[in-house]
Amino acid sequence: MIEFLGGTALEAAAPYILLALGLTLLIACGNWLVSGSVQLARHFKVSTFIVGLTVTAYGTSAPEMFISVGAAIDGAHDIALGTILGSNIANIGCILAVVAIAATIPVRNKAVALDLAVMFGVTVLFLFLGIDGAVTRLGGLLLVSILIAYTAWSIMRARKTAGEKTTEPASMRPWVAALVVLGALVGLYFSAGWFVSGARAVALQWGVSDRVIAISVVAVGTSMPELVVSLIAAFKKEADLSIGNIIGSNMFNIAGVLGVTAVVRTLPTGERLVFASDMAWLLGISLALLLAMLPLSRGIISRWKGGALFALFAVYIFVLYAGG
After folding, report:
1. Residue 11 lies in a domain
2. Beta-carbon count within 10 A of 62 CB
3. How does pLDDT run across 130-150, given as a tens digit for each residue?
4. Whole-angstrom Cα distance, residue 68 to residue 75?
5. What's the CATH code of the domain at 144?
6. CA-CA distances (angstroms) from residue 221 to 27, 87, 126, 217, 235?
7. Structural domains in the chain (count)
8. Would you say residue 3 lies in a domain?
């Protein structure tokens, strides 16, 4: 009995301990990164929608960045790719759905239509880049270039309309905010490594593939910062930040996380049929988000729409595990 408790049981629990520690630190560091980034952004006086679309969205996607790049370097391509795909699906079908169920989300920002179109565009580009079996370094550079151009354009657009809206003043000195961001990045680096190691070990224990674990457990886990930020924003009546956070995060996951990962190392996408199936789900749930937000100028994501999105996500997870 002593041997069981000290040996086998501890070894069996070790992957879950790594997952728990990694996820806890990922969420904490993600929140610190968002806080510091938002404070820095407020010194430049940009709107909450743009903050949500760029700074907050990119900050909450930092866990995906560290996990995917680290997994690609370690040769865990299914985890790298699955994290990106699963996170984008979870952001809409799980995170935004839960936020809508908890607090109805009004759609008021007219710019959301263009940003949705950009999100759809990079998702379709992802499909074309990866359908032949791999996203190459050239494809990664193209995605990163699109992200840089889009971010620059979004900030310039925000600066032009800055006088039309009031922005909350910064409550943190710039150098303090920079230190918070730096500390969060260091924490994300180490916690991502723990999380990936735990996820691969859990996949072996459960007898399922790295892809399934990445698309479900890892993806939902790394989307927790988006959930925290979007829920807080919704309860504070900052619906623009909630929507901008999800759209911007999905945009960054593909153009930023996937792009940088492919630049570091060409990223195989596996079997064409499996990849095409995952992409069909991603495009389908993205289209469901668009329908839920109509009309884009004065729409509302009600509780029943949030429930429908969550039900769609639940069906996807069931199909995923049924296929193993």
Report:
1. no
2. 27
3. 999 999 999 999 999 999 998
4. 10
5. 1.20.1420.30
6. 8, 9, 23, 6, 22
7. 1
8. no
Residue 7 lies in a domain: no
pLDDT, tens digit (0-9, with 9 covering 90-100), for 41-52: 777 666 656 666
Read off the pLDDT of residues 277-287 as tens digits, 9 standing for 90 and up.
999 999 999 99
Q: Which of 110-124, 192-206, 274-288 shows the highest mean pLDDT?
A: 274-288
Q: What pLDDT is attached to residue 25?
A: 84
HEC secondary structure over the chain: CHHHHHHHHHHHHHHHHHHHHHHHHHHHHHHHHHHHHHHHHHCCCCCHHHHHHHHHHHHHCHHHHHHHHHHHHCCCHHHHHHHHHHHHHHHHHHHHHHHHHHCCEECCCCCHHHHHHHHHHHHHHHHHHHCCCEECHHHHHHHHHHHHHHHHHHHHHHHHCHHHCCCCCCCCCHHHHHHHHHHHHHHHHHHHHHHHHHHHHHHHHHCCCHHHHHHHHHHHHHCHHHHHHHHHHHHCCCHHHHHHHHHHHHHHHHHHHHHHHHHHCCEECCCHHHHHHHHHHHHHHHHHHHHHHCCCCCCEECHHHHHHHHHHHHHHHHHHHHHC
Average pLDDT of the segment spanning 232-246: 73
User: Does 2 reside within a domain?
Assistant: no
Instruction: Say whether the peptide bond before residue 295 is cis (omega within 30 degrees of 0).
Output: yes
The C-alpha angle with vertex 259 and arms to 290 and 38, in degrees rounded to 5, equals: 65
Containing structural domain, residue 107? 16-323
Between 69 and 61, the higher pLDDT residue:
69
